[in-house]
Amino acid sequence: MGDCDSMRRLLGDRLNPEKMKTSRRRLAMKSNGRIVLLTLLACVVLISTGCGYQYKCNVTFGGPPCGSGGTGGLNTTGTGGNSNGGGASDFLYTMPSGGSGGFILQGAVLSGGTFVTLTGVTLPTVPIGFYSDFDIVNKKFLYIPNTTENNGVTGVAEVHTFVVNHSDGSLSAVSGSPFQTSQTFSDTIASDNQGKFLFIGDRGGFNFAGASIASFLINPTTGALTAAPGSPIPVSGSPNVMAVDGSGKYLYASFATAGGIMAFNIDQTTGALTPMVGSPFNVNAGTNMTDIKTDSTGKFLIGTTNTFSNSTNPHPDPHLYVISINQTTGALNTAVPFPTANLAFAVTTNPVTPFVYGFTEDTASSPTGIEGFSLDASGTLTPIVGSPFTTLTGGFFGKFDQNGTQLFYPMPGSKFSVVGANATTGVLTQTAPPLLMSTSDVFAVTN
User: 247 φ, ψ to 5°?
Assistant: First the structure.
């Protein structure tokens, strides 16, 4: 096992009880550390080696992670099979909150207004390690970036890749998986709308040293990954969250600290990245964007900020920010703020319709609901009638299915919620009762 300094590098605030209070939010934003799925042994070793951590992890294998506050257990009621019968509309895949020797992926299926745990299939096991996000490309390839971990020491940065079987929700490993990224950590993930390229961000160590972005060409038939020339490329800041514009020509990465948004040109043949002239773009007077998404037209980035590093105002900013993209060069213009009723922590955009949704919270860091906006061609956000949607239980972030009809999001209490989006008005309504799952809030959906 490494020395105390190396252990602090690996775990940082992960065993800090104060920052554990926001563990669910860090799952979405990766602002204050990677999502760590550690065994009880790693926690015990930290305490016994005298590295200065006194926080004790009451973890049991298969139970919730340190500080999650979750109540484990799968929903075993009312499944009655998957009810898909070829008519399943959506599959959701997520990471369990604890494990020994590996993590067996979990699944759920939404069909005909019924949202139940996926049964009748055995999903794959992935190694214990650091997991930040999932991504599903072309509705058929599930990509899971991971940094393996053994007793608290990092191993290999890689991407586990699976093919989704839409008849029963089963997953089969792609030949050659896992694919190594040649990074220290595999953290954030992004792909283009065309499904040609995959990007993996490494947030780096102390002061973000070693931060990089790896890029891959996706085989459209098999899902196999081929590293782009020069991948990974070093970056001067931490790629906290990444997004690709609608044309698939530009990759944007938000810093984890104030400094703007990094921008890259994407080689349309190989996926290789080249820093854009003028990057990074200081779009908001030195305040970092903690979440960025592209809109359905690809002409705008929508972002949120927060001030967690400021002890006098440790909460998100009550605004969503619209950043227009130069359609010729990819350069970013100054962010324009639009107020939200509550503190905007995260944002998601409908991939098909011109609607934007902010996940908000109060000053006690409790979710307050979802706020909806329509985005016009000029980049103006207008609140949707009925927003904020106070009848919906709030969460801290969410993901749409590729058709833009259903929005999934994790809730407090180890549950997932699914709401339908009206294609004409943007109004959100509950599709099915929330589903109890033993989850770490890292997930992806496909229809």
Answer: -80, -15
For residues 390 and 355, give the distance between their C-alpha atoms in angstroms, rounded to a whole number.
18
- In the chain, % helix, strand, coil (3-state, to 5) comes to 10, 40, 55
Q: Which of 68, 87, 103 is the C-terminal boundary of a domain? A: 68
Q: Is 367 part of any domain?
A: yes
**Residues 6+ positions from 263 with CB-CB distance below 8 Å:** 250, 251, 252, 253, 275, 276, 278, 279, 280, 281, 330, 331, 332
CA angle 147, 158, 145 (to 5 degrees): 70
Query: Residue 53: which domain range?
Result: 1-68
Residue that terminates a domain, selected from 44, 68, 92:
68
Amino acid in position 199:
F
Structure tokens at 334: 């100054």
Residue 169, both tokens: 């929700």
How far apart are the C-alpha atoms of 176 and 389, rounded to whole Å?
45
Judge whether 183 lies within some domain: no
pLDDT surpasses 70 at 30: no
388 domain residue, yes or no? yes
Cα–Cα dist 166/402, whole Å: 14
Q: Highest-confidence range of 19-33, 251-265, 302-316, by mean pLDDT?
A: 251-265
Whole-number Å distance between alpha carbons of 331 and 64: 43
Question: DSSP states of 315-370 as a string?
Answer: SB-SEEEEEEB-TTT--B---EEEE-SSEEEEEEE-SSSSEEEEEEE-TTS-EEEE
Distance CA 91, CA 103 (A): 19
Q: How far is CA 62 from CA 65, 92, 129, in A?
A: 9, 20, 14
Residue 153 CA to its chain's centroid (Å): 23
The amino acid at 381: L
Contact 232, 202 (CB under 8 A): yes
Characterise 391 by phi-psi region: left (phi > 0), alpha (psi -120 to 50), beta (else).
Answer: alpha
Structurally, the chain folds into a number of domains equal to: 2
Residue 212 falls within a domain, yes or no?
A: no
Instruction: Report the sign of the C-alpha dihedral through residues 168, 172, 174, 175, in that order.
Output: negative
pLDDT in tens, 226-253: 999 999 999 987 888 999 999 999 999 9
Tokens representing residue 305 in the block: 């900020």
Least Cα distance to 308 among 357, 261, 343, 263 occurs for 343
> What distance separates the 2 farthest-apart alpha carbons in the chain?
59
Element (H, E) at 214: strand 212-218
